Amino acid sequence: MSLLPVPEAQARLLALAGPLSVEEIAAAACAGRWLALNVTSRRDQPWADLSSMDGYAVRAAEWPGPWRVTDISSAGGALPAPLARGTACRIFTGAPVPVGADAILIQEHAALTGDTLRGEDKPLTQGQHVRPAASDFRAGETLLAAGSQLNAARIALAVLAGHGVLPVRRRPIVALLSTGNELVAPGAPTPPGRLPSSNAPMLAAMLAAVPCDIIDLGIVPDDLPALTQAFIKAGEADIIVSTGGASVGDHDLVRAAFTEAGGSLDFWKIRMRPGKPLMAGKLGDSVFLGLPGNPVSAHVTAMLFLLPLVRHMGGAASPLPAITNAQLAIPLPGTGERDDYLRAFHGEDGIVSVTSQDSAAVAAMAQADCLIWRPAHSGAAGAGDIVKILPFPL
Ligand SMILES: Nc1nc2c(c(=O)[nH]1)N[C@H]1C(S)=C(S)[C@@H](COP(=O)(O)OP(=O)(O)OC[C@H]3O[C@@H](n4cnc5c(N)ncnc54)[C@H](O)[C@@H]3O)O[C@H]1N2
Ligand code: MOO
């Protein structure tokens, strides 16, 4: 198989499954989820002309008064009567402005003697401290598009628009499978030849940035029947992610076990560094993503493939990672046959690549906060040049 360019591999991966089913969830529990349908407003906001300050509703042209205070308007209280000429209405923040009034005299600029009011400071202008009806949004207006992600501000908007529950896509269930005879559970003793399995905790941390549920199926040895059984068990998940055993060594059995379990492989080997041995396929309704075992390769391929897949199945309209421009603080050599994804961080003078770009260099990766994307066959870059970067999800 020849090496697949990253965008082609991403497109093929996302084509393996559509967004999951729709569920109605309380708005307060929707943080991070993607809308399955447009959100249309059920009400005007504000519902009437409302005061934005505590004071007195008056006619601006009548400033500085005197006015006689004849009524009161408070948020949630009875509607005030229309304002007669020469009168004022005591009013509080968020309360409806009486018909006839067109400005609010704030109480700091008002002198009240008995029920006689006079304006101080500067003359009032029409509309001063009044929020017009429907100036934020109007009933029937489409406020949020299907496929947009619900953050705190969008949840506030949907609730103010009259929605208590929102249609979102089900959270994908992601099964994590760590393969390798050398691996022991995190924190377990590491006699010679053994090392702690760090990939599943790392992936769980990355997945914390997107709505999904994780099933950690633990460590599976490099043994065909054991790996096959693990894949069969993982078939309950929407997404099956393995790490390790993806390359060409005698112990790299992931492809064989996946096929033995009934899976069909869609692609293997990507034109990227690190992450070349990445593979993907379908096992029943589950999408399978086989990440390389090297922790750095697993991290980079999770950013470029796993998180987009979770977003896509969760209903995101734009599931691919955000790519932004940034200025290099250091020079970079040209690239070869594959796209490079260099681990880097934001320094005072721009982006700095970490010293070791080895795909097993975890201490160097731990200094990074982003990847620099350098397409294949790029020339050398100098300090001050603009490059494309992808921020780490967490
Ligand atoms: N002859 C070739 N050898 C290799 C090639 C190749 O094309 N031809 N590709 C290399 C590339 S690129 C990568 S990346 C690695 C990926 O190999 P595997 O996916 O088969 O990974 P393993 O061999 O199982 O492990 C690699 C490395 O990572 C450590 N590891 C594995 N799992 C974990 C884990 N859960 N936590 C921490 N560390 C883990 C493992 O001990 C190995 O050191 O293959 C190259 N070889
Ligand atoms: O592509 Mo591997 O992922 O170089 O280390």
TrEMBL record:
SMART domains: MoCF_biosynth. Keywords: Magnesium, Metal-binding, Molybdenum, Molybdenum cofactor biosynthesis, Transferase. One of its GO terms (biological process) is Mo-molybdopterin cofactor biosynthetic process. The keyword Metal-binding applies. Pathway: Cofactor biosynthesis; molybdopterin biosynthesis. Its cofactor is Mg(2+). Coiled coil: none annotated. It is an enzyme of class 2 (transferase). InterPro entries: MoaB/Mog-like_dom_sf, MoaB/Mog_dom, MoeA-like, MoeA_C_domain_IV, MoeA_C_domain_IV_sf, MoeA_linker/N, MoeA_linker/N_sf. It catalyses: adenylyl-molybdopterin + molybdate = Mo-molybdopterin + AMP + H(+). Belongs to the MoeA family. Catalyzes the insertion of molybdate into adenylated molybdopterin with the concomitant release of AMP. This is Molybdopterin molybdenumtransferase. It comes from Sphingobium cloacae. The lineage of its organism: Bacteria, Pseudomonadati, Pseudomonadota, Alphaproteobacteria, Sphingomonadales.
